[in-house]
Amino acid sequence: MIKTPTGSPGFYRWKICAMLFMATTINFVDRQVLGILAPQLQKEFSWTDSEYGFIVSSFQAAYAIGFLFMGHLLDKIGTRMGSMIAIGFWSIATMLHAIVGSLFGFAAVRFLLGLGEAGNFPSALKAVSEWFPRKERALATGIFVSGASVGAIVAPLTVPFIAIHYGWQVTFVITGAIGFVWIAFWMWMYRSPQEHPRLSATELEYISSDPPEPKIKIPWIQLLKYRQTWAFAFGAFMTHPIFSFFLFFLPKFFYSNYGVGIDKIGPILIVVYLMSDFGSIIGGWASSALIKRGWTINKSRKTTMLASALCVVPVYFAAQTTELWVSVGLIGLALAAHSAWSANLFTLTTDMFPRQVVASVVGIGSMLGAIGGMFGATIGGFLLQTTGSYVSLFIFAGCAYLIAFTGVQLLAPKLKSITLEKII
Length: 424
Description:
This protein is an all-alpha fold. It has a single domain (12-209, 220-423), classed as MFS general substrate transporter like domains (Growth Hormone, Chain: A). It has helices at residues 12-45, 49-77, 79-96, 103-117, 120-131, 134-166, 168-189, 201-207, 227-258, 265-292, 297-312, 324-352, 358-387, 391-411, 420-423.
């Protein structure tokens, strides 16, 4: 056992959090590549906006299907093996983009990518519930969720350079291969806290400081009985599609509205996603800090989520301003608020459910979020092709979080925790 300084619980759990952060970063680099290359690929393959929307929808459809079984699989086989399978599968799917050249070929590999990437958030939330006491979970979640924004920053820094100098096919191969490096470190570093040889007794005691949870087994379908499941699911359904919309359509938006091409999009996306990254950490820190100040879990999470929802509203004006950097600022604020919202929304599952079923609950809710994203991409592509305007899409984005907050509040007004007796 590693000796821990007196008064300090240790920090190995934060190394696990760093691995979850890296996995999420890789996850969003891999899915962002297509969005950055979209203007180039649309020209090369003569895709219409509707056809591009179809390709994006194929990812979202598979993402939804993947959540049907990924959460349950993770709860069954464990975080270590489940995470390895998920990232290995989506890394192979990313590399397969290099060998396709048709509309349906791209749709097929995006479908495979969606199946694999569906495992990231359920596995990360399950790891957080295993490795962190409740008072630190929102912060840990905010850190690993910020990997989504970092991935969206890394992608525009690297993808245009690789694509311009080596071709888009090589871009997909390189980004896909990175996942296998992560797998090697993950298999070496990860065990459950109770079985980990490098975890100090002091830190294990700190991790286990919450009241013990009974060992339970519950059929996946039974989780649908609880309002708490639907509270998370409704929040995900309304808001996950907004981030997906920005992820896949922002390069096209800036190209259409301001003439920003692939050679100039990098700095803009970096600013937008740096703001998003900041919001994720602040959102996770805020509710955790409020809990440490004596606020209830319900009040701290809900206050942070409501503030986040209100900060998204001004994004409506981003599609109407003629000033590029005003638009960038409004979109960056919206994405920062989204990340703060998501850090707390995901943490609700660990507040309301025993850790043995957290991945399954995240899978159910995220499945509905992906379904929302699938329809959103299809409808968005259709609206763009018929109207040529992003205004209606930005109006919905501005309203979605307040609608989601209202639903969460109605379904889980006190964030009441599910107990073993109620599950049985």
